[in-house]
Amino acid sequence: MTTQATGILDPTAGPVLVVGLGNPGDRYAATRHNIGHMVVNELADRNSQRWNVHKAGAAVAEFRLGIGGPKIILAKPATYMNLSGKPIAALLKFFNIGPENLIVIHDELDIDFDNLRIKRGGGEGGHNGLKSTTQALGTKDYLRVRAGVGRPPGRMSAADYVLRPFSSTEHETLALHIDRAADAVESLIEHGLTVTQNRFHQK
After folding, report:
1. Which pTM value belongs to this model?
2. Pairing mode, strands 143-148 and 116-120
3. N or C: which end of the chain has fewer CB within 10 A?
4. Domains in the chain, ordered, with CATH?
5. Which residues are catalytic?
6. Beta strands, E only, 4-129
7. Strand pairing partners for 108?
8. Is 75 within 8 Å of 40 (Cβ atoms)?
9. Taking Cα atoms as reference points, which of 100, 184, 106 lies closest to residue 142?
10. Which residue numbers belong to the known binding site?
């Protein structure tokens, strides 16, 4: 499904699973940790899709990207962040998708707010959702869209910071940040990793 040497996604070879990481429930919906949910919600809205409950333990939406385009499965695990891997693995098995056709969208403390970085594989950087995903899949070789939320101010702990809503200043450009991350997902599917990095790493 991919050219492993270059990390280019080839959606013509099969479905693509796009997972937005986050925590379930209204309490967490507007927090920094849930920006992955926000991005897949944007992708569902763009394609006029409603979410359905899947037995794998996630909300899913299925559609084709463009006329005659590749099949896309959007997903939001119904578990808390640190247990994300189990439903992701179950969805890959159900839809017969390899990890190489998995895109995970998540918040990233080490990237400034309103910036994106896209990569395949690598470490988890302390992110519990990625740790769970890597453990469940037995591989780190999946694509990540890293949506920057920046470092916590002062002595605030990272755990407290990501579970708080975006600031009023951040809200001024949050919609654009989410929109740009959704664009990056579409670019990954249509044009591959290298093209997407060249486009979205420029800021």
Report:
1. 0.93
2. antiparallel
3. C
4. 11-200 (3.40.50.1470)
5. 33
6. 8-9, 16-20, 52-54, 58-64, 71-77, 102-108, 116-120
7. 148
8. yes
9. 100
10. 28, 80, 82, 128
